[in-house]
């Protein structure tokens, strides 16, 4: 039995025959169906070009239907058939007019308008071969190979039309801020025999005609309501998706995202950073050598204002639910030395003169005023070595074998003679550096080395902890058995096996931390002691894996702190002339007067020399610019930068070596205006 609304497409030599076939197939009568004539029959000429009638019969709703109400009764159908005019000769297979003689068709077979025709001949038999996946019947017998056919045979094929229903799905994002309609269009596939011209042998082929089937918008809208999607619907996109003839994903609804607010912050009322720029002399000229200036503050000066948090604006999901912005937090101010909070904690006021130091991290800010140590004469045996937590300014020179160590900046108005300067920040020496060691950013260098070792150690600790967890799953081994004796024996077994490099890494890190005593915070010493007692002693203090995990988490926190410290480094060295000295800067190095003679310069930033470089080694992580490099007489001069940086030399002497990455070049003749870099293939290019 056929359900209401179902239909059958039927073919017959006539419309009446097609209707009878459909009714018989459905087991229904005329008054219970609707009939639609898709194609009328055509007899053609000599059987050529004839075409069967094609109709669609659809089962109506249940209930008595009178003949007067029946839109297509048999009487009406016969009346309509009588009014149909015969088809024209346009259905004739593609033969030229002179070949439409019946004699030309003898012994041949052809396909026209989806039907098979043939003409007998006394001396020749027409042959038909069914194509792939074609059910060909001769006298109701299924044929699967080439056969002889005649006019008396009843020849037909079974072709099934298909409908590929369209597929669609509505997907809502996890945050409910977007809904997409995924569509795969459907199609109606109509199959019919391919036209074949008269021939003694033909192979049957099928043609397919695809008609796109669009998606009904009603069910889509119903699904939107079912999912509760009522906000930000784009009806244009829905229409485009439903009528698309290609698979696709369409955004059919968008929510309104929340607008985040702002956490509380510190608004500085004066320059807190080292100024970079040109300074004007009293006579109006510009001093190109004075390019940086340290900021300072006076007692009672307002350093800045603590700004309150600003709340954000909520948004809306596609299901019309509110989406609240992230919570905003007030700024927590840690009062360092030399400052005080006034006005209900909204204003930061300096209580001492010195250099303002602000370290802001997340919603916490540390503010202090670093005092400056002023030495109005030379640093010599009378003053002794200097160790200061802030900035140091020396009006005179630093004499033989003296040491100046400052966590802030160092300014020397005259010379540095066979002495050492270690500064946490920048160093300016207005005159000459003779046979001395100058280090700007010592803390940063040490922290950078600790950061590198700590990163490798954390990876090893994490792998070791995972290995212990795996061992604990073995029935013959229980980690709990070490609760009294400690994990020392187990750690030794692992270090002797898979983790052979772990003891060396641990020892190296402990030594680095010990070398930074007085520079690093006390927490580093505590961490170093726990490393030693946990991993280096035979009787380890670790009684459980959880204790190792806690130490690893502490290591990860220190690793993050050292990374931030390294990224915030802003150091430089500036001097007039250097002879037989070693200069290290985590930032730039600038030599503004005569130049550099037989010295070693290392910069984590850029190196610029206005004068000459005679001998020694130069390395700059961010490039080099030198007026004159090299010396006559064979003094070796080497200039190195990493891959991706450049070397600029206004003038270069023979025997000067330059290196970019791993690519080196030695000048054999004097050259001018040299610009060296690596090309895209990694080859050294010198202009």
Percentage of residues in strands = 35-45%
Task: Please tell me what the overall shape is.
Answer: elongated
What Rg is obtained from the alpha carbons, in whole angstroms? Answer: 46 Å
Number of DSSP strands? Answer: 51
- The helical percent reads 10-25%
Protein name: DUF342 domain-containing protein
Pfam families: FapA, FapA_N, Jag_N
Domain RNA-binding protein KhpB N-terminal: 9-60
Notable characteristics:
about 675 residues; alpha/beta; 5 domains; four-stranded antiparallel sheet; 9 helices; 51 strands; about 20% helix; elongated; FapA; Jag_N_dom_sf; DUF342 domain-containing protein; KhpB_N
Description of the molecule:
It holds the Pfam family FapA_N. This is DUF342 domain-containing protein. 19% of the residues lie in helices and 37% in strands. It is of the alpha/beta class and 687 residues long. The protein folds into five domains: 84 residues, no CATH class; 159 residues, no CATH class; 105 residues, no CATH class; 185 residues, no CATH class; 123 residues, no CATH class. A hairpin with a 2-residue loop joins strand 48 and strand 49. It is elongated, with a radius of gyration of 46 Å.
